[in-house]
Write a structure and sequence with these properties.
Helix content: 55-70%
Structural class: mainly alpha
Distance between the termini: 63 Å
Number of strands: 0
Order of helices and strands: HHHHHHHHHHHHHHHHH
Shape: elongated
Radius of gyration: 29 Å
Amino acid sequence: MTTPDGAAAQAPAQRKDATARPARRGPADPVRALMHHHQNLCAHAVDALEIAAGLEAYGVTDRTAARFRHRDVFSLAEELYARVPRAEPDGAPAAESASTPSPGRPPAPAGRSRSVRGALQLLPGAVCLATVAALASCGEATPLARKAVGIAGVVLLALAVRLAVRTGPLRLRHHEPRSRAAALWICWTAGYAVYGDWLLGQLLTGGPDLPPAAPRPAVATAVALACALAPAAGCARWFAVRGRRGLAVSRGLGELAARTRPLLLTATLLFLGALVALLLGAGAVLGSDGAVAVAAAAALGVLLFLARLLAVHGFPEAAAAGLASATALEALSLSLVLIARLPGLPPLDMPVETLTTAAGPAAVPAVACTAAALGLLVHGLRALTGACAHSPSEPAEAHRP
């Protein structure tokens, strides 16, 4: 039983504790508002890393997480994942029935093994080499037969490239309409790499005079670029695996960016080294067009690699923009030469003529592809170092408001 003297003695102590304890500012549960704002993201997330990727895409940084009494975005995402109940997927019974094999239905085939995917990555190079060998073997055939062999080889090569980029590390997680436009830019830049130097040289000399002036393709460039799909897939897989590993062990966006930037630079340099080796080897066997042509093909290969890497990790718009810029520069160079033939407009082709006189026609795609590749690399050092770039569920741009 407490005496009046004891109660009187406790009262000053309680008042002293109350004055010593600082008053808490803000709501008692600051995370509740964030839970309601990102309810859909948190309810459908597979793990806390996916929530962290979505928060980062919405602009939540480690400094923002500090306002919610967390040290970083990953810690905040872990609380959101723990507090928000998981949403039931729509059509779960149907999915279970579809995945369960019936007595009269054979079981679903297993996924492609790594060896099969590797064979598909090597298929474009094999098809291109077979086409070159077929064209060389029918040297004394009629022009119509050679043209048929060439068209068949191009069609088979396109199908092989399509198979290679739809499997393995180069496969897009989500197909979007803008990927069709990117495919057009890829076709243009690849076609220019094979026939662009010949066409620009003909235009500068007043041609081309078709059909006597038969197009002269850059065979070594075509073979090297087709064979480069295999090292591109390997470098993309190396970057993806180590990027996800860095996401799992990082405790902040700054730490994740510091881990991922060297990975992107290393993957790009590894692919560039493999591509240059392929270009030099193909040039030694099939004939090289010079150092500038090798530099132009290498710049195009790095551009295509970075564009595909950005698209695979959820940034198809940036990939399409980089390819479109290179296409625009190459198309502009051809257009200026043609427009300069009009009366009163000869000076328009002066930049193109000066560049080709100094370094040859291959200097135009070298400059265009190098500028576009550097732009994608700078963008990738910012975009591919975030958590949203390594989330396997949705493209990064889908999270953006």
